[in-house]
Recover the amino acids of this structure.
């Protein structure tokens, strides 16, 4: 049992650690907060600024991919088609990726809504925010930026828990000073920030954590994705994209294919799919199909992948706020903004006391 003298000493030490760690890591924590609040609505922001390209009025039956391909090929002759995005949502347009652009097509009428080259201002802004959040825009072999942000996530966990310990004896919630604002925001955002920070640290140190997680769950890593079709005769004809979609639907019943990457010579169809409960922008299921025989080389559904991989999938959905759809995205974004307010109010408290 701690003595009366030991408790104040421990509180004083913890207070000093809390204060100086916050001053050291504050800039990186604020970057995580600002960028995280934006990234929670990354797809929605992109769709908002490209409404005319994104949304269509649903009708009875969409055109086949063969018909869509014909429309795009006639409009942009000489551009090879690389992939399709056949959104699982009926009110969103199809996208056809060529060697030069993304073509948006109304899948019901065949109208070409427009194109994007990937370097417009919105794409650049969201890409910069994403990379700033992940690795501080630092791209090197040792992944320095990712490590810094991961340690900043660990700092958030320590600051949240130590802040709770320091606040607990007073249990004061009021808004009369920067110090009060700091305490109040910290208490109300504590649980969500701990969840976001912990899930972010797991993502940041996934290479180190993954082997332990597989060992604990008694599972293994995901199988390697085949990249080449089986040997075939010179006159063999590849299956169509429409046929590949039907094969993918049968391979993982209940999962809707939404991205179809077309095979290169001797390559394979790589198809991503999503179950109704998959609320992340990218579905977590994949089907690989031999382009000549139509044989399924890999069918990996998010419901049946190894337990360790399912935990990583869930962790990422929790971190991005996608786990419960729009409500959890709003909570994650607000909590990220509260993190910024924590940095500002903490700094102002320190500055006023210093003066």
């Amino acid at each position: 049992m701690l003595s009366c003298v030991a408790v104040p000493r421990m509180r004083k030490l913890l207070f000093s650690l809390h204060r100086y760690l916050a001053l050291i890591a504050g800039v990186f924590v604020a970057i995580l907060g600002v960028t995280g609040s934006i990234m929670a609505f990354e797809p929605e922001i992109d769709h908002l600024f490209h409404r005319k390209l994104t949304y269509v009025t649903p009708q009875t039956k969409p055109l086949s991919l063969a018909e869509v391909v014909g429309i795009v090929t006639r409009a942009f002759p000489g551009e090879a088609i690389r992939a399709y995005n056949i959104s699982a949502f009926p009110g969103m347009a199809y996208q056809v990726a060529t060697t030069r652009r993304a073509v948006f097509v109304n899948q019901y009428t065949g109208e070409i809504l427009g194109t994007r080259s990937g370097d417009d201002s919105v794409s650049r802004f969201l890409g910069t925010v994403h990379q700033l959040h992940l690795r501080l825009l630092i791209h090197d072999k040792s992944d320095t930026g990712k490590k810094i942000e991961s340690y900043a996530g660990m700092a958030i966990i320590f600051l949240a828990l130590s802040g709770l310990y320091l606040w607990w004896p007073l249990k004061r919630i009021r808004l009369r000073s920067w110090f009060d604002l700091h305490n109040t925001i910290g208490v109300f955002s504590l649980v969500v920030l701990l969840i976001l920070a912990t899930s972010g640290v797991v993502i940041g140190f996934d290479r180190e954590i993954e082997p332990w997680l597989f060992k604990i769950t008694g599972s293994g890593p995901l199988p390697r994705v085949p990249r080449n079709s089986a040997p075939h005769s010179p006159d063999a004809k590849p299956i169509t994209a429409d046929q590949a979609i039907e094969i993918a639907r049968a391979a993982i019943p209940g999962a809707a294919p939404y991205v179809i990457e077309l095979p290169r010579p001797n390559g394979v169809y790589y198809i991503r799919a999503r179950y109704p409960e998959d609320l992340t922008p990218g579905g977590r299921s994949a089907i690989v199909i031999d382009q000549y025989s139509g044989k399924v080389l890999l069918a990996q559904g998010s419901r049946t992948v190894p337990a360790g991989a399912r935990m990583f999938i869930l962790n990422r959905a929790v971190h991005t706020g996608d786990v419960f759809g729009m409500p959890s995205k709003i909570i994650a974004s607000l909590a990220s903004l509260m993190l910024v307010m924590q940095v500002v109010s903490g700094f102002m408290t320190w500055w006023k006391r210093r003066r």
Observations:
- DSSP finds eleven helices and eight strands in the chain.
- The radius of gyration is 25 Å.
